[in-house]
What does this fold into?
Amino acid sequence: MNVHFKRLLEIANKDERIILGLMSGTSLDGLDLALCSFSGSGLQTNVKVLQFETISYDEEFRQQIREVFAKREVDMLKLTLLIVVIAEKHASIINACLANWKVDPKTVDAIASHGQTVYHAPRVWHGLPDSPNATLQIGDGDHIARKTGIVTLSDFRQKHLAAGGEGAPLALYGDYFLFSRSGVDRILLNIGGISNFTFLPASGDPNHAFATDIGPGNTLIDAFARELFNVPFDENAMLATAGGVDIRLLQILKDEPFFEKPFPKSTGPEMFSVAWVRAAMAMLPKGNPNPYDVMATLTQLTAETIVDAVHKLPSAGLKKQLFLSGGGSHNPMTVRILKEKLPEISIAPMQDLGIHGDAKEAVLFALLANETLAGEYGPSEWLGGIPLVGMGKISLPD
It folds into this structure.
């Protein structure tokens, strides 16, 4: 047998697989790394987070990504170089973390690398009826495999597109396998650059479970924090709480047709951009609000669009639980509004389910790699309207 296939078969047949999940989101704040131990697959998956760390990016690296991020027209040389630059940056972070954790790379069976999304183009946004859903993540898996010596799975979203999805959000797979429970509807809300949630029905029916994007999470708040106050984000909502909500601007923003489109759907900073907010401001009769009011309004927008989306979920009078994760879960103004406007729903942090909210997305990509390596399902099995498929391209270190 080919030595590479033999190695993959050995990993698949292990009682325990050690997989390092990586996540770098649209907020561009840094790289999340979750070293996980897996046994089983599918609904029999058991996972234990052995190590977790977030390594912040320096501003120079962030700026390199911003030069191509969510832009229709880019310098192709810069984009091409970043495919390698991001991979090598991530590989160096991996090697440093494993050394700090005193983990021998030879004991790690696989790396699951999300890569860096630089453009997300679902049909619901680009509006071209004869063109497909599409998305682009860069940071090539071959370079990571070579620099770390570890089998690497990457570029997960393309298989979801090929199976009929929009490439995002992919959290449904891990959320359903790990957290679905009969008798209670669960909403797993992640407030990253874009806010999204997974709905897990009390019935456990995989045909009724789904994951969907909602709208802007932190992306607009962060963008205007940089533009108006020259800070990377609104820490503890101090800027937003110093202002007041501009009701007229909020309504103009909420009139965006995307919010009324049916679930599931996906979006990104390509739609919810500074230019989108500026266009709304231009419609105000008295000119732009003061900077603090802008921050308050954008934070209110994030929270209210989440509330509106939750209210659209099917209800059979069953108890609903909402679990929070992502950077926005640390925004006290956002959390306060959610609790005020969703009094009938139990709201708790993700760690109440055994996984820290900041680690959740990295863990979920590690789980996707575990499914590709060891999952067992037939062509007739579906989840959330998409066939169950193994995701991620496999890169070998040699």
Remarks:
- The first strand starts at residue 17 and ends at 24.
